[in-house]
Amino acid sequence: MTNTAKAGLAAGMLGSSIADLLANGIGVPENFPFSTGFSQNPLPYAYTALEPHIDARTMEIHYTKHAAAYANNLKDAAKEEGADTSKPLENVLATISKYSVKMRNNGGGHYNHELFWSIMSPYAGGRPEGKLMDAITSSFGSYDAFVTQFENAAKTRFGSGWAWLIVNAEKKLVVSSTPNQDNPLMDIAEIKGTPILGLDVWEHAYYLHYQNRRPDYVSAFWNLVNWKAVAERFQAAI
Ligand SMILES: [Fe+2]
Predict the structure, then answer these.
(1) To 5 degrees, how large is the angle CA 18–CA 124–CA 116?
(2) 112-126 pLDDT tens trace
(3) Helix, strand, coil percentages in the chain from 3-state DSSP, rounded to 5
(4) Is the separation of the CB atoms in 169 and 19 below 8 Å?
(5) Rounded to the nearest 10 degrees, how much is the dihedral formed by the CA atoms of 16, 34, 90, 170?
(6) What is the pLDDT of residues 20-72, one digit of tens each?
(7) 221 CA distance to ligand 1 middle (Å)
(8) Ligand 1 center to residue 128 CA distance, Å?
(9) Separation of alpha carbons 202 and 36, rounded Å
(10) Spatial separation of the C-alpha atoms in residues 135 and 80, rounded to whole Å
(11) What pTM was estimated for this model as a whole?
(12) How far is the CA of 22 from the centre of ligand 1 (A)?
């Protein structure tokens, strides 16, 4: 796309939704309620809070070592490459092909973990309600069919990566997966959209407790999904 075409697209999309903007690589409005900064936010619950499904030791190492490293390395990359850290990180992700592999891996890594912590909660689980449930049923046929498709994406992602539930440019719900720390906001993503639910299937997310049993970890995840938080992201994305 030429710069002129991009400018025209941006001008024509001023009233469009976040999903439209992101899907076209335009970035996000500054008032998007779920935009992500370049620093790690406090974990919204204790390391023990998600037990027995995610053990405290895994949570502590995951948050203080792995996720913290992504945030720190992202700050370095942003400084080295002149990214505007006063703007949402989503703007960088939407144009990630212009940046280094370091920015791609750490920008994705930071964003993905911030989202991951936010859509889990102790005493969560159950099923979505209201418009989100209606949209899931409309898009996948049933809630159970959605679960099957999402679990399949998580279980079959070769090596390290993520499974996603996203709102695409047509405002439809789609399940996808990405390798490494890529995500659907990136202009290099095969399937683009706004992620509203994500599951980390890197071994660092589950190996201490589940060892090679990734399917058991994936199944346990449903006990932790904060559907209220997912629904809020869904509402903001449509
Ligand atoms: Fe992780």
Answers:
(1) 45
(2) 999 999 999 998 989
(3) 50, 10, 40
(4) yes
(5) -40
(6) 655 555 555 556 678 899 999 999 999 999 999 999 999 999 999 999 999 99
(7) 14
(8) 24
(9) 21
(10) 42
(11) 0.89
(12) 23
